[in-house]
Each structure stands twice: as structure tokens, then as C-alpha cells.
Amino acid sequence: MKIDLSTTWTPSQQEFDLFARISGDDNPIHVDPEFSARTAFGRTVSHGMLIYTKLWGMLIAAHPGITQTGQTMMFPNPCYTGEPVELRVNGECPGTLSVRAVRAADGADLLVGETEVA
């Protein structure tokens, strides 16, 4: 089956904070605006797996019952609160799906990867 999905998501600090509580990853770069302001990023950045969770959730909503058998991903640029992100999933199921998150304002790749699905 051919899969071609896309949507736009605008992350919030509340989502970063909730994901930190759920995942246990409370690194201040994700949850502490004062700390993050003093880093090279200048503000909080998303957990990479929060971005992937948004992509996977989009896929599950469109195709309930799909299962993942493997994944690879890179996070070449930071994802910030309040900046719209284009989420895209496409490919063949069963098979390999391309997953990608792109900052809408400048086209910067935030997550680039593949997921193997059955």
C-alpha cells in the first residue's frame, strides 16, 4: 500500500515539558528557558523523539494496526517552540517509509529518517 501523509505541527513548550515528564529526559535544553537562553541554541529545543512521536502518531492515525520493525533517523537542526514544522511520511507498506520534519520558515531539516513497517 502506498503511503503519502503530511501535516503541519507547531510545537509548544508545554509539549516539551510533558514529553520530558513522560520520557524522563528532563535535560534543561528542553525544559528550562533561562538555561537554554545561555546556550548556542538561544532557547529550548525539542526532544528528537518527540518529533518522531508526532510522525509515528500521524501514521498510526491514518493506518491503525501498522507495526514498526526498525528505524533510523538523524536530527540535523534544532526544533523550537512556536515555529511551524512540516511533517511528512511516504513510501510503501509493508516496506520502508521516509519520515521527515522540516522547519516551515526556512526548509531546514529537523528530522530525516526511515522506518521499516509491516
Count of individual beta strands: 5
User: How many separate domains?
Assistant: 1
SSE run: EHHHHEEEE
Q: Radius of gyration in whole Å, from Cα?
A: 15 Å
Number of helices: 4
CATH topology: Thiol Ester Dehydrase, Chain A
Within CATH, the superfamily carries the name Hotdog Thioesterase
Average pLDDT confidence is 97
Structural class: alpha+beta
The N- to C-terminal Cα distance equals 11 Å
- The low-confidence runs, each spanning 5 or more residues with pLDDT under 50, are none
Strand portion: 25-35%
Judging from the principal axes of the Cα atoms, what is the shape? elongated
The main β sheet shows up as:
5 strands, antiparallel
Reading side by side through the largest sheet, how are the strands ordered?
1-3-4-5-2
